[in-house]
Q: What sequence folds into this?
């Protein structure tokens, strides 16, 4: 069993009420791989510049992540700078420099096309569609996106959405895409495009999964200290798909459990800046937090 992830490896500069960091390792593919590799084999496709020391990614290699799909190009690695204001729940992008990511064209090494699960992280939907065509036998495909593509490449995004099994995005993006205040209305509309499932991420309020049979909601884990929410959505995807791949079956029961695994892994991400907390994360810690979710959601004990 294995998962293919296509996304970004980046250097992030982040400011929150709890501090700030400059050019720490980040990127959607990095966050996803850091968690999914605790469950199963991960095949990574991304691009970095020669300015990023590959030793920074060694912890992924040590976990068994296959990095044959990591392109190294002349130039600088993708950089993102942002600020979080928890009181107003606003994320402000201060600077984005695509650098080598601007010319990124995903290339799947031999064998990657046999991956059982596919996660198309937040990249150009036209590139996501190109990857999809190369993995026709995948058991499950999942797409993440953002407001940039909703506003600039809507038709390409809708086309790609119609060809995946799972669509995930945050609640603000879902409302913009469908032009509604109701995430239920938004999810129902997205389902008409063809996906079997829609997962709406709601930040500190958890997430909601929708399919043709109804919906399932899960809370977020309440934490005393939240340092940096960057990458929480990607680690949610890593825990979600990682668990499903390890479970070996896709049923409503395993999907619900996978969502809790995703929420559990995302809760570790926000405890430190960048991927620092994920470097030492273990399956035992994830299982303990999974049990915490079970305990605080179990109404039978009240």
A:
């Amino acid at each position: 069993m294995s998962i293919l992830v296509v996304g970004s490896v980046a250097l992030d500069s982040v400011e929150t009420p709890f501090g700030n960091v400059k050019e720490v390792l980040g990127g959607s593919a990095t966050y996803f791989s850091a968690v999914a590799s605790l469950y199963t084999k991960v095949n990574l496709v991304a691009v970095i510049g020669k300015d990023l020391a590959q030793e920074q990614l060694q912890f992924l290699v040590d976990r068994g992540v296959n990095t044959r799909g990591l392109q190294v190009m002349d130039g600088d690695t993708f950089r993102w700078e942002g600020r979080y204001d928890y009181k107003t729940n606003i994320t402000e992008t201060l600077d984005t420099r695509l650098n080598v990511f601007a010319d990124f064209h995903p290339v799947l090494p031999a064998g990657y096309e046999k991956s059982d699960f596919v996660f198309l992280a937040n990249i150009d939907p036209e590139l996501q569609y190109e990857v999809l065509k190369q993995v026709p036998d995948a058991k499950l495909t999942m797409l993440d996106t953002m407001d940039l593509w909703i506003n600039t490449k809507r038709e390409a995004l809708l086309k790609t959405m119609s060809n995946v099994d799972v669509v995930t995005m945050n609640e603000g993006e879902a409302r913009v895409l469908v032009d509604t205040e109701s995430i239920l209305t938004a999810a129902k509309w997205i389902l008409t495009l063809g996906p079997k499932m829609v997962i709406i991420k709601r930040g500190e309020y958890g997430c909601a999964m929708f399919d043709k049979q109804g919906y399932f909601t899960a809370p977020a884990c309440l934490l005393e200290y939240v340092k940096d929410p960057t990458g929480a959505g990607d680690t949610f995807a890593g825990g979600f798909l990682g668990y499903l791949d390890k479970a070996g079956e896709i049923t409503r029961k395993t999907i619900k459990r996978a969502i809790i695994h995703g929420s559990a892994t995302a809760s570790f991400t926000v405890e430190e800046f960048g991927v620092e907390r994920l470097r030492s994360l273990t399956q035992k810690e994830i299982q303990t937090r999974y049990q915490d979710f079970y305990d605080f959601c179990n109404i039978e004990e009240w």
Observations:
- Residues 47 and 104 are 7 Å apart (CA to CA).
